[in-house]
Amino acid sequence: MIVANMAAAEFGKLTSTQNLIQLAFSLIRIVFAMARAGITLDKLVEAGAQLADETGFEHLTGAALARHFDVKLASLYSHVPSFDDLKSRIALFALKELADRATDALAGRTAKDALTALANVYRDYAREHPGRFAAARHPVSAERAAASAGGQLVRMTSAVLRSYAIPEAEQTHAIRLLGGFFMGYVTLESAGGFAHSAPASDASWSRSLDALDVMLRHWPAAA
């Protein structure tokens, strides 16, 4: 019985060792596959953003990314712990692109000129990169959100509002209003919501910005 138990134990050790060896070889193959494909974390995020534009962010899959790089799905997870983590990184990537565009567009502009420039940044980005625009609304952790370019967008919107002399205590309300208009109008427009009746969407966009300008110039006092 003792000999049998010892043999069983040794067999278990051998099996465990073999499993470790197989795992090691699998990891080596994955590393070499990633190296051949030239995959880095940055390239993975950029490719994910590109595919999101082509297929829609909601339809983006790890399998599609693996096919893009011609590697097995498991190879992708040597860079990210999960697919949701990758989607969060794509969201942060999109926010950074959006914020960079806004920074350039707002330089030297104030009031209606700045409002129009900021609004057009959102609209143009959604038209050029529909998948990334959708990704920018993907929820991320509070820690990541605090460190993201989303804060930069809020600060730039605040700068636009200061040129309208919106009181500091009222700016959060105004920021939410503008964000709701930018995101809401562009999302409905992208879905074809304004394509079936006159006037053209461009005309309504322009008139809506005129109305926002008037409202911001005559912001109501807090009750």
Automatic annotation (TrEMBL):
Q: What range does the record give for the signal peptide?
A: none
DNA-binding span(s): 61-80
Domain HTH tetR-type positions: 38-98
Q: Which UniProt keywords apply?
A: DNA-binding, Transcription, Transcription regulation
**GO MF assignments:** DNA binding
Q: Which InterPro entries match?
A: Homeodomain-like_sf, HTH_TetR, MT1864/Rv1816-like_C, Tet_transcr_reg_TetR-rel_C_sf
- What is the protein name stated in its UniProt record? WHG domain-containing protein
| Source species | Burkholderia contaminans
